[in-house]
Design brief:
Belongs to the aldehyde dehydrogenase family. This is Aldehyde dehydrogenase. By secondary structure, the chain is an alpha/beta fold. The protein contains 15 helices and 23 strands. The structure holds NADPH dihydro-nicotinamide-adenine-dinucleotide phosphate. NADPH dihydro-nicotinamide-adenine-dinucleotide phosphate is lined by residues 148-152, 175, 177-178, 207-209, 212-213, 216, 227-229, 232, 235-236, 250-252, 284, 331, 334, 385, 387.
Length: 486
């Protein structure tokens, strides 16, 4: 079995207690590697290493020099893409075609985007209604930033945090999910090679309630950036609040994909399918509620079912695979439990609805792509985040009803509308309670524009120029020019 080590300061190390956690391959359901089970003492060492690096060599670099290192890192991610892709395929069950077809390049692009931004954070001179007073703002790094990352897209969801945090001049400690740590541990080794001083990027592995909570409550930590479920997010936010640490939270969703009768139905079909079935539905932005105009609902669902009926489930490393496994054993059980709930609530599975056993295997964690009709928006399956390849279908009659159903959720991460009407394309997005609204598109995301949630879907925004300010302190400087100076 392969053995991975943590990165703390200049060291690649096991946990102090020399305890290990087995990590499983979702395609086979078998353990394939071990990662260190860090605890409080390991978390403290990592925070101290990050703090020292900030006071030392890293703190002395100019913003342009930080940008150069981030550029070099992006290049190294590309040069090491085979290793990184292999790890995410094996550890997380992400499809190789998806990673090689753009997802890994997208990860590298984060470091380049924020490399370019590092030396372009400008303050402002503000008019003040006091004669002789000059006021201006500057920005400075916060200090040690803790990034807590889930299992569904470890490299990406770590990079959306690490890149702006380092561009802003902070140092970082990453806590990956214990289910999916290996690609982030491999990424950490590239920081050395890129020339980052030791301690700028540290990775400690282990359980959230052991090493994770030790990090979020450490007095030297000034900021916590989290992606994950709502329960974990609330726990992290409570712990950060105790020490008045700033937080950004990117949480779950139950995003509506709204298809109007005037839509280009071919485009809408592709968008609805991409919205829910890519990454086997394990995505915060999954378009898990299909709201479709009643006049086209039957035809649209029939076509969607036909397009997915022959989808190939199987080895995520194979180019012919359309749908990979559920990433963790626990999540697999949770999705099957939701399918039981769907049956009890009286929904009809017009596609799927059960476990799948592709390739004659008995051990992998596969769920059939599932489409559920006879669903109303008050059912649990329409309200709870399932985080699996399960789509609920809810017909609507009027635009107002579509908007009302779309907004009738605790979440507010994303939404999409499919229409050929300019009036709808312009008029409906402002009415939707979601941080991102796509028109005739789904899953279009970029380092270049903000992403994040309203309501229970989160606090703050990742990506775009504004996100770097989430990792900076604003300072007001006021000079009294009426006092004589030499
Ligand atoms: P969690 O939110 O529990 O895990 C996300 C990360 O937070 C993990 O690294 C976890 O570590 C860590 N964590 C959890 N609790 C704490 C804590 N108290 N202090 C510090 N760190 C902590 O996600 P789950 O794996 O439990 O998934 C639960 C549900 O969340 C899923 O069913 C899905 O609905 C949703 N989800 C949403 C994601 C998104 O992208 N928005 C991503 C993943 C899940 P550890 O795993 O070791 O506990």
């Amino acid at each position: 079995m392969r053995k991975f080590l943590m990165t703390i300061g200049a060291d690649r190390c096991p946990a102090l207690a020399d305890e290990w956690i087995e990590t499983e391959n979702p395609y086979t359901g078998e353990p394939w590697a071990v990662i260190p089970r860090g605890r409080e003492a390991d978390a403290y060492l990592a925070v101290e290493a990050a703090h020292e690096a900030g006071k030392g060599a890293w703190g002395r670099l100019t913003a342009t020099e930080r940008g150069r290192l981030l550029h070099r890192l992006a290049q190294l991610i590309r040069e090491n893409s085979d290793t990184l892709v292999d790890l995410e395929v094996t550890d997380v069950g992400r499809r190789r075609t998806e990673l090689e077809g753009g997802a890994l390049e997208y990860i590298a692009s984060y470091y380049e985007y924020y490399a370019g931004l590092a030396d372009k954070v400008e303050g402002q001179v503000t008019p003040v209604d006091r004669p002789g007073m000059l006021h201006y703002t500057t920005y400075q790094p916060m200090g040690v930033v803790v990034c807590i990352v889930p299992w569904n897209g470890p490299l990406l969801l770590a990079s959306t945090k690490i890149a702006p945090a380092l561009a802003a001049g902070n140092t970082v400690v990453v806590k990956p999910s214990e289910f999916a740590s290996t690609s982030i541990l491999a990424l950490a080794e590239l920081f050395d090679e890129a020339g980052f001083p030791p301690g700028v990027l540290n990775v400690v592995t282990g359980y959230g309630n052991e090493v994770g909570s030790a990090l979020t409550s450490h007095p030297l930590v000034r900021k916590v950036a989290f992606t994950g479920g709502n329960a974990g997010g609330a726990a992290v936010a409570r712990s950060a609040a105790e020490g008045f640490r700033s937080v950004t939270l990117e949480l779950g969703g139950k995003s509506p994909n709204i298809v109007f009768a005037d839509a280009d139905l071919d485009a809408a079909l592709a968008g609805v399918s991409l919205g829910i079935f890519s990454t086997s539905g394990q995505s915060c932005m999954a378009g898990s509620r299909l709201l479709v105009h009643r006049s086209i609902a039957d035809e649209f669902v029939d076509r969607l079912v036909a397009s997915m009926r022959d989808a190939t489930l199987g080895d995520p490393g194979e180019p012919t695979t359309d749908i990979g496994p559920i990433s963790t054993r626990t999540q697999f059980a949770a999705v099957l439990e939701h399918l039981d709930v769907a049956r009890r609530e009286g929904a009809t599975a017009v596609l799927g609805g059960a476990r799948a056993l592709p390739d004659g295997g008995e051990k992998g964690w596969f769920v059939q792509p599932t489409i559920l009709t006879n669903v109303t928006n008050d059912m649990r399956i329409a309200r709870e985040e399932i985080f699996g390849p399960v789509l609920v279908v809810i017909p609507f009659d009027t635009d107002d009803e579509a908007v009302a159903i779309a907004n009738d959720t605790n979440f507010g991460l994303a939404a999409a509308i499919w229409t050929s009407s300019l009036a709808r394309a312009v008029g409906i997005p402002p009415r939707l309670e979601a941080g991102t609204v796509w028109v005739n598109a789904y899953r279009v995301v970029s380092a270049m524009f903000p992403f994040g949630g309203m309501k229970d879907s989160g606090v703050g925004r990742e990506n775009g120029t504004a996100a770097i300010k989430e990792y900076l302190e604003t300072k007001s400087i006021i000079i009294n020019a009426t006092v004589r100076t030499r």
